[in-house]
Amino acid sequence: MSSVTADHVSGHGHDDHDHKPHGWRRWLFATNHKDIGTMYLTFSFTMLLVGGVLALLLRTELFSPGLQFFQPELFNQFTTMHGLIMIFLAIMPAFVGFANWMIPLQIGASDMAFARMNNFSFWLLPIGATLMLVSFFVPGGANAAGWTMYAPLSLQMGPGMDFGIFAVHILGASSIMGAINIVVTVLNMRAPGMTLMKMPLFCWTWLITAYLLIAIMPVLAAAVTMLLTDRHFGTSFFNAAAGGDPVLYQHVFWFFGHPEVYVMILPAFGIVSSVVPAFSRKLLFGYASMVYATAAIAILSFLVWAHHMFATGMPVTGQLYFMYATMLISIPTGVKVFNWVATMWRGSLTFETPMLFAIGFIFVFTVGGFTGLILAVAPIDIAVHDTYYVIAHFHYVMVAGSLFGMYSGAYYWLPKWTGRMYSEKLGKWHFWTSMISFNITFFPMHFLGLAGMPRRYADYAAQFTDFNEIATIGAFFFGFSQLIFLYLAIRAWNGHGEPAPAKPWEGATGLEWSVPSPAPFHTFVTPPVVK
Q1: In the chain, fewer beta carbons within 10 Å around the N or the C end?
Q2: Which residue range(s) make up the domain with 154?
Q3: Is residue 258 flagged as an active site residue?
Q4: Residue 18 has what pLDDT?
């Protein structure tokens, strides 16, 4: 971050009376950015547990070859719903929760720009979640076409597919409203003296992410609407027998889907860029280059969608273009990793829980980045397409990327949210159990994929047994490790633990540390002045 510090701030203007609503009305009609942020974070963690249970059911079936517990149809429903729930109901809402809580605090705004729209965009989420979960109980079961919902399979599903389509529409509308709110808040509500290039990087990464969301969510809406009309209204966008093209669906879907991957990682970059300087006792190395790198990643993300489609038989020139364009993204990403390492270089490092998760994020995300670079090579990708190698790559980026980034931010800001310090010992236990079990779970999947084990199958050949057993044991170890965080968060929320000072971390800088912990209901009644 730039050199804005809490000491440079005047005029907090806290409301001593703290007039705030109480009871269920406070949550149902919430317009306060902190309450809405809390609701987003609570909802997303609940959905993380739901998606995690589905993942453990999958791994239970895959512990040994042969069908033990589930028919392949139900297994495919679990696979699909695990992906959709984790992406649309866990990772994305969690980052919007961080944005709601922290952006107004970091830019010195009194609240988000559109408070009532903020409430509406949250309450769409439980509706979408209900539609998704209810789809398990309709005739034919839930969507089983994979989270990407590829035609022609998705044209042949039962009514559970329609539930999925409507859920995606509703969740997309929620995302668009949240994104508009963030853009307007960041551009119009910064405190006097808070120029764009003085903003914390978390605000920058979210501003760029919000533009991505506004650009891509309508594309997803178009793709699933065409699916819906193909299914029920006699169109044939994707039905080859009637002159349509199933590959068209892939083009439209991935034009949404690839920028979407960056929607799920850029806010984590912003969090890590706040945490690493704080525990290195230094300013972030190369602030401006971090901003430009984030923008470069966002722009390039629109130019690489068909690297998901090397196996569709595209011409060699197309393969070459998408191969080179994909490799190009590794440059701005490498700039970020270099800057984080350079920030730590010769800093006065301490290794509290947020810093451990941030360093763990950098390490494991970099591994995931390298496997992504390997998948960008078209001939290799064609060989390992739709194998467990892709699953390993994706989870190294999403779990160890998004999720570890979120934990880093949650442990960093939890004292500010709750006014309580958590047990540092238990936080470190959470980190080490998660880090070790994550690698036990997903590292063997690289070998499974290279050996040719296809993904989304309920059964497999006997030679894949050993690695699958290791992965399943790791998955249960990883799943239960997450309950440590649940315990710590509930404890802090219920007022247990040491009272947190306004600035619990010695090296932390920024406006959010200039207000008391917990942050008062009305934060900046008169805007602070950033000198």
Answers
A1: C
A2: 6-530
A3: yes
A4: 55
Catalytic residue, chosen from 169, 336, 385, 522, is 336
Q: How far is CA 323 from CA 37, 252, 257, 369, 377, in A?
A: 39, 19, 17, 15, 6
- Is residue 522 annotated as part of the catalytic site, yes or no? no
Q: Establish whether 457 is a catalytic residue.
A: no
Task: Judge whether 186 and 112 are in contact, CB under 8 Å.
Answer: no
Look up the CATH number of the domain holding residue 120: 1.20.210.10
**What is the pLDDT at residue 531?**
80
For residue 1, being part of any structural domain is answered with no
Of all residues in the chain, the percent with pLDDT exceeding 90 is: 92
251 included as an active-site residue? no
Instruction: Give me the catalytic one of 33, 59, 82, 385.
Output: 82
Answer yes or no: are the C-beta atoms of 11 and 526 closer than 8 Å.
yes
Res 527: pLDDT: 86
pLDDT for residue 261 is more than 60: yes
Q: Which of 128-137, 254-263, 518-527 has the lowest mean pLDDT?
A: 518-527
Is position 354 within any domain?
yes
Known catalytic membership, residue 280: no
In a domain, 132, yes or no: yes
Active site residue 307: yes
In a 3-state reduction of DSSP, which class is residue 499?
Answer: strand
Amino acid letter, residue 382: I
> What dihedral angle (degrees, nearest 10) is formed by the CA atoms of 315, 319, 321, 325?
160
Q: Across residues 71-88, what is the average pLDDT?
A: 96
Residue 13 has pLDDT above 80, yes or no: no
Write out pLDDT tens, residues 40-50: 999 999 999 99
Q: What is the C-alpha to C-alpha distance for residues 268 and 351, in angstroms, rounded to an integer?
A: 19
Distance between CA atoms of residues 353 and 407, nearest Å: 9
DSSP H stretches of helix in 451-508: 465-493
| Residues in a beta bridge with 530 | 9
| Paired tokens of 328 | 């190009």
What's the CA angle centered on 338, arms 335 and 342, to 5 degrees? Answer: 135
Among the listed residues 44, 185, 301, 333, the single catalytic one is 333
Does the residue 260 lie in any domain?
yes
Candidate list 61, 162, 230, 260, residue with the active-site label: 260
pTM flag (> 0.70): yes
Axis-axis angle for helices 353-376, 404-418 (nearest 10): 150
Residue 455 designated active-site = yes
Catalytic residue among 206, 262, 305, 407: 262
Stretch 410-418: mean pLDDT: 96
Q: Are 75 and 22 in contact (CB under 8 A)?
A: no
As a whole-number percent, the residues of the chain with pLDDT over 70 amount to 97
Phi-psi domain of 387 (left: phi exceeds 0; alpha: psi -120 through 50; beta: other): beta
State how many domains the chain has: 1
Pure H helices in 135-200:
159-188
Active site annotation includes 8: no
Angle (CA) 219-221-226 rounded to 5° is 100
